[in-house]
Amino acid sequence: MTPMDNATPLIRKLIIVGVGLIGGSLALALRRAGAVQEIIGVGRSEVNLNKAIEVGAIDSVVSRLSDAAEDADVIVLATPVNTINQHLEELSVNPSKDVIITDVGSVKQDIVLAAKKCLKERYRNFVPGHPVAGRERSGIDAANPELFKNHNVVLTPEDGVSPEAVAVVRAMWMATGASIIFMDRKEHDAVLSLTSHLPHILAYAMMNYLAGDPNAERCYQMTAGGFYDFTRTASSDPEMWRDISIMNKDCLLEDIRRFQGRLGDIAMMIQDGEEAPLEKLFEDARQARSLITERRKFSQSS
User: Fold this and answer.
1) Domain residues for 20?
2) Does residue 112 share a domain with residue 256?
């Protein structure tokens, strides 16, 4: 496979395992870009897979990954993180040495270790990936070909991985309108713990705390936009975030402990009436938030 020209799609046969929000959006985006010739879906829900065929995301369905993996060009593992390792085990008996395998998991260290164990010499064609985009909804009904446009996709290939495989996976994601960032897998897990995993934990914790309050019903009535925005991610799939939390527990526990310390500092400032330090903390936070806003605007305009 080579980067596509006007006549030849980038990927002849693509298998997407898990045709939900991410997998379905990827299929629709690649279809729109003319980057793929045939897309085969693998998944647990027959209803969801049939709907994916109806909306044009995939061409056909197979019940087992091994039934179609042998002559595929690219396999994308777009299932929850706890099942990606199971699919890697299934691929351990696949005789094809040329198929390129990638994933979309938001935790990379555990997945990379499983890939090394399962794929052995074919690990050279494994390109770990993570599209930093998503919604609270799931399933093919939530899929959108614009989902990855102006968003980052992180690739964490190790030394020794085929440059050709990396080039194909990079081109695949670029065809969706995404920007590509290369990172070390340990750095990825540390950064995502702080920017994604911890915020989800905080949103879940806040909603759990509010739900247990004696005035919960009145609180539900009185919540405004700020609270709604802050807790938005508490609408995400609990099963998925349970698995992410456990798989990235080392980074996440460290961030939780550090954040507890920061909350303790703020509590002391409030208790002691330290107006100037408290205002400075709020101002520093506002400035940091402004940097994120500016960089998002620049990224979207590039």
Assistant:
1) 11-183
2) no
